[in-house]
Design a protein that fits this description.
- The protein has 444 residues and is α/β, with parallel strands linked by helices.
- It has two domains: 7-73 and 329-439, Aspartate Aminotransferase, domain 1; 91-310, Aspartate Aminotransferase, domain 2, CATH 3.40.640.
- The chain has twelve helices and 16 strands.
- It has helices at residues 7-19, 75-87, 96-108, 121-136, 196-206, 230-240, 260-265, 291-298, 312-353, 382-389, 393-405, 423-439, and strands at 34-35, 38-39, 42-46, 49-52, 57-60, 114-118, 140-144, 188-191, 210-215, 244-249, 271-274, 285-289, 358-363, 366-371, 408-409, 414-416.
- The longest helix is centred in the C-terminal third of the chain and has 42 residues, at 312-353.
- The protein is globular, with a radius of gyration of 22 Å.
- The two termini are 19 Å apart.
């Protein structure tokens, strides 16, 4: 039986519970980094590894839920940040770095004709929706069941909640019913994703009210890609009914590739938002798209404000991060996909060898594992995913805990790869996966 030394983390956990709201800086973190009631406190990160205050080392597949595409403390990014700190971290006025990052995004993102910045994905979504409403003069927004667009009241609806209502007509569910006003539901329509027929029927009936359609173009967090032809149909319908199509690429942009999901899928939206892997660990987000929509900001008709918007420290980090990804024609992506494919394939083989009813599905840059009787092919939308992940949550939790004890930090069900994960990391991880399944009593 493997045990971790956690004396310092236990002491910090007790202290945090007394003085910090929720005992953490972000409430979702406690789900992935607790062990027997103790929150594990991290002290430093380097490359693919992260180290806690008690000196334990972990191979990190959490990567702050995706932003650390180039791993921890990448030398090129650290150098850029150090140089910028000496020049100043905030000016509160324009700086040249924001022009340079705009140029990078316009170069790589197919739909980007103009770009703006915020600090978080939630803010960028908020501005994109405001632009869609201002541009069309309509109010309602179509979102999809199980798609997450931030924690703001206007969109934190039917994101992680258990599905409610018929599959073809989901009932909107508030993400935070204690404190979130029910009034936000009147401007949001929730539909099933990967179902073009339902979308077409809805637009045919209510297009005059619909300002925009927002979606995650690839459900990385569920390992689900769009069905063949689905995205093309969505694009055609949005154009036919004069509805702004918004891709929420907070997770996918610069993780799937330099051009995000829209480049990968070859379907171009009107607007996009991104964050996470763009910043490489720095707090920054972007929104952008068609010039005729974005110029509503230039014309002063739609505000896009924020004290920390386009601050030079985050811009410097983001630029350095993208430079690493661009180097040698995107060689880092090829290596990340190779290593990720090796890991995903290896986990599948262990499941099969040990006769474990489980799946590993998604893209090599980010995939999911799930203990379920369902096949990967059956899981094509949030309803199916919810059924799969909720079928044996205790197995997933035992698996996560045993991996953590063996120095593998994975936020079950997600596995995030970075450009610095290695074959050695994969070999150690696969050994931990096999031992964890056996120790958790999951093997037949």
């Amino acid at each position: 039986m493997v045990e971790l030394k956690l004396e310092k983390s236990r002491a910090l956990t007790k202290k945090a519970k007394k003085i910090q709201a929720g005992g953490t800086g972000s409430t979702q973190r406690l789900k992935v980094i607790t062990l027997e009631g103790t929150t594990i406190y991290m002290e430093r990160g380097s490359g693919s590894k992260i180290y806690d205050v008690d000196g334990n080392e972990y191979i990190d597949y959490y990567l702050d839920y995706g932003p650390l595409i180039n791993g921890h403390a990448h030398p090129h990014i650290v150098k850029a940040i150090k140089e910028q700190v000496e020049k100043g971290t905030m000016y509160g006025i324009n700086n040249e770095l924001e022009i340079r990052l705009c140029e990078k995004l316009i170069k790589h993102v197919p739909c980007a004709e103009m770009v703006g910045f915020h600090s978080t994905g939630s803010e960028a979504v908020h501005t994109a929706l405001r632009l869609a409403r201002a541009y069309t003069g309509k109010n309602k927004i179509i979102k999809f069941e199980g798609h997450y667009h931030g924690w703001f009241d206007s969109v934190h609806i039917s994101s992680f909640s258990p599905p409610k209502g018929p599959e073809e007509a989901p009932e909107p569910v508030l993400g935070s019913p204690l404190g979130q006003p029910k009034s936000v539901l009147q401007d949001i329509m929730v539909l099933p994703w990967n179902n073009a027929e339902v979308l077409e029927k809805t637009l045919k009936k209510q297009a005059k009210e619909v300002a925009g359609i927002i979606m995650e173009p690839i459900e990385l967090g569920h390992g689900i890609l769009p069905k063949e032809g689905y995205m093309e149909t969505v694009r055609e319908l949005s154009e036919k009914y004069d509805v702004v199509l918004i891709f929420d690429e907070v997770k996918t942009m610069f993780r799937v590739g330099l051009g995000g999901a829209q480049e990968y899928l070859k379907v171009i939206p009107d607007l996009f938002v991104c964050s996470k892997a763009m910043g490489g660990g720095l707090p920054i987000s972007a929104f952008g798209g068609k010039k005729e929509i974005m110029e509503l900001i230039t014309q002063g008709k739609v505000p896009a404000m924020g004290t920390y918007n386009a601050n030079p420290l985050s811009l410097a980090g983001a630029l350095a991060n993208i430079e690493v990804l661009e180097k040698d024609g995107g060689k880092a992506y090829k290596e990340m996909y190779r290593v990720g494919e090796k890991l995903m394939k290896g986990i599948r083989e262990i499941f099969e060898e040990l006769k474990v009813k489980a799946i590993a599905k998604g893209l090599p840059c980010q995939f999911v594992t799930c203990f379920t009787e369902m096949s990967a092919e059956e899981i094509t939308n949030y309803r199916a995913w919810s059924k799969a992940i909720e079928s044996a949550p205790e197995k997933g939790e035992r698996f996560r805990v045993e991996l953590l004890k063996r120095g593998v930090f994975s936020s079950y069900p997600d596995w995030h790869l970075s450009t610095v994960h290695s074959d050695s990391d994969v070999e150690k991880t696969l050994g931990a996966v096999e031992d964890s399944i056996k120790e958790a009593g999951l093997a037949k």
